[in-house]
From TrEMBL:
Catalyzes the phosphorylation of ribose at O-5 in a reaction requiring ATP and magnesium. The resulting D-ribose-5-phosphate can then be used either for sythesis of nucleotides, histidine, and tryptophan, or as a component of the pentose phosphate pathway. ATP binds at residues 178, 209-214, 240-241. This is Ribokinase. The gene is rbsK. It comes from Roseomonas populi. Homodimer. Pathway: Carbohydrate metabolism; D-ribose degradation; D-ribose 5-phosphate from beta-D-ribopyranose: step 2/2. InterPro entries: PfkB_dom (IPR011611), Ribo/fructo_kinase (IPR002139), Ribokinase (IPR011877), Ribokinase-like (IPR029056). K(+) binds at residues 235, 237, 271, 274, 276. Activated by a monovalent cation that binds near, but not in, the active site. The most likely occupant of the site in vivo is potassium. Ion binding induces a conformational change that may alter substrate affinity. Gene3D superfamilies: 3.40.1190.20. Requires a divalent cation, most likely magnesium in vivo, as an electrophilic catalyst to aid phosphoryl group transfer. It is the chelate of the metal and the nucleotide that is the actual substrate. Its cofactor is Mg(2+). The lineage of its organism: Bacteria, Pseudomonadati, Pseudomonadota, Alphaproteobacteria, Acetobacterales. Residues 3-282 form the Carbohydrate kinase PfkB domain. Substrate binds at residues 10-12, 38-42, 134, 241.
């Protein structure tokens, strides 16, 4: 089955620094780079490099930054026929990465704020539809409901955490959040900040990524926990996106959620070992070597 990703595409300006700047503090860094990014584009590239047939729907501006934002998608062979050009700047992010691989990110949504669910062509039953929160939440909600109506599998990565219509959350096939996003949502719902707690509150399958502690999920079939793969971190910017994109690709092939989580964790570890976001996404063969099946 194919994977459709509805989300953001950015041009990332990446600044390597020894330490992350504090408020009011200026730090000097090494040579900066302009790289493709945006959570939607990153996850689409991760899914495509893992072997999925990927269609990306989003919006860019009519400016030179658009070619940067879409470059990794093009190189990965994603279908870009559902990308719209808007009269707004292409989305951009300023990313500082310190010597330990930690990051500090500021994002300007730009044209991403003008992405519309209606850009997504008709879906097919069983198709995975992957979304994030760098496009308007109302558009995500509309696409979630449409995906359900057309028999597709809507998956939402609640990143960055932002209010979302509860009815749309309850219509998901799968909700993905990191531990901070899970805590934010749990506070809003008045439930424990665990996969099981969120599952009980929403009635849908929930996966929570836990950084070096791995990931957990709770669904109708039970509760699962997978360990993280050890990695020498160079840049953690795209790790969460690698996890989501590869998970979606694995699910599109009919892999069980537990096995998909393990594959996603391996891909996320590999993405941390190289700089950048979209360009750090591993190929399927690399992930399989780490899993011991290559």
């Amino acid at each position: 089955m194919p994977v459709t990703v509805f989300g953001s595409a950015n041009a990332d300006l990446v600044f390597p620094v020894e330490s992350l700047p504090a408020p009011g503090h200026t730090v000097l860094g090494g040579p900066w780079r302009a790289l493709p990014g945006g959570k939607g584009a990153n996850q689409a590239v991760a899914a495509a490099r893992d072997g999925a047939a990927v269609r990306f729907a989003g919006a860019v501006g009519r400016d030179p930054m658009a070619s940067i934002a879409l470059s990794a998608l093009r190189a990965a062979g994603a279908d870009l026929s559902a990308v719209a050009e808007r009269d707004a700047p292409t989305g951009a992010a300023c990313i500082c990465v310190d010597s330990a691989g930690r990051n500090q990110i500021a994002v300007s949504l730009g044209a991403n704020a003008l992405a519309r669910a209606a850009q997504v062509p008709p879906l097919v039953p069983g198709e995975v539809v992957l979304m994030q929160m760098e496009v308007p939440p109302d558009e995500n909600a509309a696409l979630i409901r449409r995906a359900r109506a057309e028999g597709a599998l809507p998956v939402l990565n609640l990143a960055p955490a932002a209010p979302m219509e509860p009815g749309a959350l309850r219509a998901l096939h799968l909700l993905i959040a990191n531990e901070h996003e899970a805590a934010w949502l749990a506070a809003a719902l008045g439930c424990p900040a665990s996969a099981a707690g969120l599952r009980a509150a929403l009635g849908v399958t929930v996966a929570v990524t836990l950084g070096e502690a791995g990931a957990e999920a709770a669904g109708e079939g039970g509760h699962w926990r997978v360990s993280a793969f050890p990695a020498r971190a160079v840049d953690t910017t795209g790790a969460g996106d690698a996890w989501c994109g590869v998970l979606a690709a694995a699910l599109s092939r009919g892999v069980s959620l537990e096995a998909a989580m393990r594959r996603a964790s391996a891909a996320a570890a590999l993405s941390c070992t190289r700089p950048g976001a979209a360009e750090a996404m591993p190929m399927a063969a690399e992930t399989e070597v780490l899993l011991g099946v290559g």
